[in-house]
Structure formats: structure tokens, C-alpha cells
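Minutes, structural biology subgroup

Action item carried over from last meeting: produce the C-alpha cell record for N-methyl-L-tryptophan oxidase (Actinocorallia longicatena). EB confirmed the sequence was re-checked against the source entry. Recorded below for completeness.
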Amino acid sequence: MDSMDVAVVGLGLAGAASARALSRRGRSVTVFEAFAPGHRNGSSHGSARIFRRGYLDPFYIELTGRARTLWHQVEAESGERLLTVTGGLDHGSAREPARLVELLREHGVAAELWTAGEAAAHRPGVVFDGPVVFDPECGVLDPERTIAALLALSGARVHYETPVRRLEPDGHGVLLHTDEGVRHARTVVVAAGGWTVPLLPDLAGLLPLTVGQQQAFYFRPGPGRPWPTLVHDSDDGDLIYALPEGPLMKIGEHSPGTPTTAEARDFVVDPAARERVTAYVARWLPGLDPVPAGETSCLYTWVREEDFVIDRSGDIIVCSACSGHGAKFTPLLGELVADLADGGPPLPRFAFRS
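Output recorded by EB:
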């Protein structure tokens, strides 16, 4: 049996980034994707995710800076515009605006702290009830365009509609069992999102991942200036995000979502979530038509600390990077996987849990 160098299982953002980073280090990459191109079964479909620097954890602010540099590098190499800067606003007492601005400035971000009145003058379509952080580096990234650009840069061979059913380490690499037969790879990268734990039952105890179905809703803005991204940690305890996607604003709740599995999800939008988000728009975003113009669902693969899992067991590298906020780190995730493939250690925060 011929042995491939590196097999990547899953062609979402993390899988595509891994393919590109590994190929840059001289590795030959083959990708196995369970579905057809452009499918909507995972977490990487659509054309809009938030890029932001605003974390209350310095660890993630530092990582977003590294990721931002890599985004520009991928854009330069591919000739594609993948990240559109819009500026972003964070508000709500739980966002700790004064501390957030201080942390951002410590990391070189020219963030500003506005009063509610100043913010309303800049963005009259939003209601503010306290201090607001303006982050000029926030923007919107395009997942599907990014996957295509990363894949083209990688030169990887892709097997679409080829689900990997089982992985079997054999002492010289890993056997990949598919419906078309068994293949062998010296190293396997599992970037399969909600399918990760079922594919790696022997590592389940080290992978504290839960899978949930979330949804996002689209609202039509009135006339006026372009909208920024928004993150609001309201006094009601709901963390709401909003970002422009085409002519609409995409709005959703940041939480694990309704428990499910990657295989069992029903794609049915939760009516209670629709009601909550619509009520939120009516109260806090008067610049939008409060009647949803569209809706969608996706999978959240959640780690309880909202961190990621990027670690290695033998010849298998796991890259489960989501918790609802992984997209902005895409090109950096690939580099972290490539570091592991080169024999480096994982970042402690992303190592397997016991």
C-alpha cells in the first residue's frame, strides 16, 4: 500500500489552513472531505465571520495579532481579498470597556473608549447604555473564499465526498478507512469539527468537546453609513454579535447552542432563538428592520473554557478550533498544526485535557 505523507481529514477553515501551512514546510498533503464543495454541514460555510482583537484575555489578543499578520500574507500570496476592515464596537458592562481598551493598547491596537453619546453620534442606528470600545482593526472575513485561497496555495490533492470512517494507527503511520478502501498516511491531521470525537474514540477522554447547533439571523439596515461589527455583552447575560454580510446584518448569540451531534443535527432554526434575537434587534438596533430577512444554522464545537484543542497523539494531530470564535485565527491554526508536525510542543492552553 502506498503511503501518503500527510492526510488532512476535513476541509473547513482549519483543514485548509493546515494544508497550506504544511505544504509551505515541504510536506505533501492529501485532503479527505466527507461532502461536496460548498456544503453547509459544518462551521465554515457562508461569506462572513468577525475578525476582532477585543479579548479580555491577553493570550488571545496576542494570537489575534499573529493571525492578522498571516491574513495579510495569505492575501498577498493569493491575490484575494479575504479580510475587509470595518472597525468594531464592543459594549456592555461585562465587556469591561475600560480594561479592554487598556489591554488592546498594550498590544499596539489604537483602540478608543467612547461615551454612549459619542458612540451614538458615530453609529446612530445602535442604542448604547454605557462606555463603548472602538477597535479600528475589526472586520469581516470570508470563510468560503478563504478555504478556496488556502487550498489553491497548498497544492493539495482533495478527495471530496470521501468520508473517513475510522483511523487506525499501525506503528508506521495511520490507516484511513474510507468507503473506497483503505489508505495509509505517515501523519494524519483531524480537522473534522463536530465529527472529531466519533472519529477518535480512543482519545475521547482527552477531547472535552460538545457539539451544538446554533443559528444566525439576517436583518435589513436602513439607509446610512456602512455598519461596523458589534459585540454586546448585555446585562441580560446574552453575548450578541453582529456583522455585515453583503447588504444585510448577520446577528447571533454566542453560546454552545442546542446539544446535538454532527450526524443528528436537524438544521431547524430554534424559534426561541429567533424570538430572542428579534427582540434584541428591536430594543438595541433601531437602525435595522426588526423583521428577519433570512436565517441559517451551523455547528459549534465547544470546549468548556472556550479554548481550542490542537495537540498530537502519535501520528495523529487534532485541530479542533472553534468554540464559536475560531475563524479569525484561521491561518495561525495551520501554523500551529505544522509546528506539531515538525515535532514541536503544543501551546499549553491548547493541549489535550485529562
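Discussion: The domain at 1-85+138-205+307-354 is CATH 3.50.50.60 (FAD/NAD(P)-binding domain).
Next step: EB to file the record with the rest of the batch.
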